[in-house]
Amino acid sequence: MYYVYALYNRKHDKIYIGQTKDLQTRIDLHNKREFKNSYTARLDGEWILIYSEQILDRTQALKREKQLKSYRGREFIKRHIPR
C-alpha cells in the first residue's frame, strides 16, 4: 500500500505533493529537514498533512502524484488548505 499526500506550510503558504509507503514517517522526515537540499528543507515552519489517499501500488501512486501536481490537481489540493 502506498500513499499520495499533500503537505502545507502555513508560514510560507506553500504546498508539497509526494508519495510514500510510510506516511507518518515521511511527514516526520519532512519536518525534521532530513531531506537536505529538498524543497521542504529549504523552508522553515511546520509542514502539516492536508490531504492523503491510499493507492495499491507504486506505479499508480506515481501516476496519481503526477495528476495532483498538474494545474487542476493543485486547484483540488488548495481546497483542502485549512483557513
UniProtKB/TrEMBL annotation:
Family from the record: Belongs to the UPF0213 family.
Domain GIY-YIG: residue ranges: 1-78
Name of the protein in question: GIY-YIG domain-containing protein
Domain of life where this protein originates: Bacteria
One Pfam family named in its UniProt record: GIY-YIG
Signal peptide: none
Entry coiled-coil feature ranges: none
